[in-house]
């Protein structure tokens, strides 16, 4: 069946994806928060539709291109979760004027002032979250930093402070339930503290938005939080398996490739799935370019994937030296590879081939890219 | 000027590219060989047109999608330089029947037999090169391996042996003129030896095709070689600068990004150019995600680029600790980043923005992706 596909090709196991969607949504429902999935992982309307059908309220995007594509498809409430800069304001304005309820992010007084001025000049009032740094991982204002109040004060006229947002990206480097639960609590408590500081100074702060896949799946309670965001949970990947928030059997995407040759003396099986198909993302450096599986998706621990060129994957046989790898994995045979990082591997492909549930045709779901 | 572009965006310096094209073509002309550029680097018709206008004869591709796109645009002589497998033969057949002169690659008896059978069944005669392994780097048959003759013998009926091909990818790991010249000579001599073995056994072997950017720029002579292939030379990148075959001033593409925030305590300048814009390719691990430059492309050695998330680049200030990085690189200011690997960075983008030579508009050259 898979041999009729021209490889390499990105496979999607819809049943696993649906399980992942329901697992997260059920958790959010129980924790009593809204869920706003981050669609940067899939960049695919069919996937987002299923997240919304399961109960998501609005979506999160990493680019205005994503905002534009999903708005065109009917999603009307979108958070652009990267700090806005001047060269993107005209694009944001255009989307808002077309009817999108777009929320922007700032983390500096300078940008808060520019957003407010741009809004005032163009007769709109931008809805804005302030980014809070709860883990020292990347962007944002520290929760007790008095600059928070300066930013809030600058959001006047053409802008309105809607709330605070944080992303505990540091959770990707943890791998015990205890550490993850502690990070989830740190993310929650610090973001709530920032909201309290703002409210204490008289600012409205309706939204308290937190999230990353590991913390969303590890939080014990989310008191004071209004919404959670997560992206990669929809597909999962080896990084998430290493963190410990999914099993390999929950990973919903894989790259189907074909054996194109061998170097028996080196134990190499060469495939047409190189870094262009996998991405260069090495995750936690534990699985090379990904976990090699047979055509049905069962991991083959005897095959490593330590080397890749643009359209060549070089797999290393590390099993019994007596095995004839040319016979065992003949030219033309199929292998599947579980990705280190679903967002990065997905981005290398223009569509998902959805594994047919009862045989039959392969549905093809397009995904977009770029800015 | 650059501030009007919505970042991140891939910039192309056409003047530098034209210099690179002429440098390579002049060298090939002097060495007395045909030149068949590898278009996997640019995947852009405008770029390939300039390579052909400068004297290239035919092109090399890494996917049948590239073959299809360039054939549609009028290129009629294309070498698909990855070993063919059964699931791609129908696609190849379709292109040949549409009039493309497509050359295929094999490196096993099994595939030689399948190609010949497929051709016979469909009434075409595939033109085929045998891949030779001249550096132990990846694929191919060793030049003195008797299997060469078995493959040649299998190319009967629906297939015809056209010649031999090799790619000395190991040259990417060298960095002295002496080592590069030796590798170029090894690539040449071993590929020619394979051709001699085939000819000695009575097989026609018209084509002897070698190449990689480093060896093409380092070969002293190419006796016995009929054509050279190279790809990344058209743009160059930091890997090629590390190898020593270009200067930073010859690198023709860069990613324009915008400062979106800071973490002054850590010396971080955060931009909207993350790994989605740069790729995850770390090259020789010497420059992080790329070499940070000012908006005009002058390197800023005080800025490292060691960390990237999907849409965030985290630059590290490593200059004078007394500098106020918020003032020096304010939110909204532009930076450019030279890529580690032009093929990988280019693949993250849907178009090139060509730097206007005399001010004015930015020409936009589309590039395609996928399979």
Automatic annotation (TrEMBL), chains A, B:
GO biological processes: D-serine catabolic process
Domain D-serine dehydratase-like stretches: 252-356
MF terms (GO), sorted A to Z: D-serine ammonia-lyase activity
Pfam families: Ala_racemase_N (PF01168), D-ser_dehydrat (PF14031)
Listed InterPro entries: Ala_racemase_N, D-amino_acid_metab_enzyme, D-ser_dehydrat-like_dom, D-ser_dehydrat-like_sf, PLP-binding_barrel
Keywords: Lyase
Family: Belongs to the DSD1 family.
Protein name listed in UniProt: DSD1 family PLP-dependent enzyme
Organism: Duganella aquatilis
